[in-house]
């Protein structure tokens, strides 16, 4: 494997793993939540984080947005509200 440097860490054969924390969309589009999750990942030893952001209104149809989201982890009653 080729060795390379990411930030101040060497990656490749003979080096420890480069840990990437998956935050995904758990920040709910809120920058302060994202910053908090990044800080927690750093405290846990992550070398980097991966985030996602998506616009659900571009992914789902109107009926899809209005569909009931019946889940104990839901942030709203419909997919659009969640």
TrEMBL record:
Gene3D superfamilies: Aldolase class I. Residues 37-74 form the PseI/NeuA/B-like domain. GO terms for molecular function: N-acylneuraminate-9-phosphate synthase activity. GO terms for biological process: carbohydrate biosynthetic process. InterPro entries: Aldolase_TIM, PseI-like, PseI/NeuA/B-like_N. This is PseI/NeuA/B-like domain-containing protein. It comes from marine metagenome.
């Amino acid at each position: 494997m080729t060795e390379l440097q990411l930030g101040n860490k060497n990656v490749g054969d003979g080096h420890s793993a480069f840990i990437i924390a998956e935050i995904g969309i758990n920040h709910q589009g809120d920058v302060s939540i994202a910053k908090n999750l990044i800080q927690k990942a750093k405290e846990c030893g992550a070398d980097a984080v991966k985030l996602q952001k998506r616009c659900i209104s571009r992914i789902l149809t109107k009926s899809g947005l209005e569909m009931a989201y019946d889940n104990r982890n839901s942030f709203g009653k419909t997919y659009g509200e969640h």
